[in-house]
Amino acid sequence: MVDFASLPLPVFPYVPVWRSGLDLAMTTLRELRDQGSVPSLASPHRLDFHQILVVTAGSGSFAVDSTRFECRPGTLVWTRPNQVIEFSPRSDMDADVIMFTETFPLHLSARVGMFDDVLRPTHWQLYGSELLAFRRVVSLLREEFQRPDEGLGEELLKHLLAVAMLHIDQMCRRRHKEPGAAVSGEQGELFLRFRRELDRSYAVTRLVEDYAAALNCSTRALSRACRAVAGTSAKDVIDSRVALEARRLLGHTDLPIGAIARRLGFSEVTNFGKFFTRRVNMTPGAFRREARAAQAR
């Protein structure tokens, strides 16, 4: 498979101050600016942890895996490990920033557990009571993060982070009209195993049958799990993952398009071009030119 994490992109340009003994950190954009970290955020870089950011003042722009959007008070951004990020905050911008590793959160249902997937939405604009509710949770999380641990600190932090994640999951389902009920049990676990296998094998095969065989299930069972959890077909999940990696490689490396096609398992560059155009609505070359132009601005 393509190990995107090994490609020549810098890791986040500062080390989070983790809570003692825990994989959780909290800061603000103003504190990062005081440390001198902010100027280097505009260049493409990766995280090796999760980051949830909610803008509290000012404005700026953000790009996650080549998707660029404007930020203003109430913008919430969730970036996942190894996503490619470009962040250009203006001097008046501030934000609350929560950072945590993949192992820190509580084990939630499969439906919520998949919310940290790189194929899911990365940003939302919060308004009114929705913003107030989320900021209350962040405020409680910050208070507990700063409080001396009296024995239950880790459990309190994990539960408060879970509340924040559940708030985001609710917003995601409302905004994107995804399936309403949390999915657990066999279908949820099967989907989780499928996504893990897909991350290992997307450059080897794009056939639903191959994934069903690897997971020791029928293609029908795999399709039902994908419909229940993601609201789409297994084939669409596979192709979305391949298209994501193609966008990353085109936008943030100098690899020739033919080399990218081979890395992603296409025997012919023309087949890769047709696949990419169908998924992204532009040719690989046009996407690369547009991505480079956006980075130069």
TrEMBL record:
Every HTH araC/xylS-type domain range: 188-290
PANTHER family, A to Z: ARAC-FAMILY TRANSCRIPTIONAL REGULATOR, TRANSCRIPTIONAL REGULATORY PROTEIN
Keywords assigned by UniProt, alphabetized: DNA-binding, Transcription, Transcription regulation
InterPro entries xrefs: AraC-bd, Homeodomain-like_sf, HTH-like, HTH_AraC, RmlC-like_jellyroll
PROSITE patterns: HTH_ARAC_FAMILY_2
Domain of life: Bacteria
Cross-referenced Gene3D superfamilies: Homeodomain-like, Jelly Rolls
Full protein name: AraC family transcriptional regulator
One Pfam family matching this protein: HTH_18
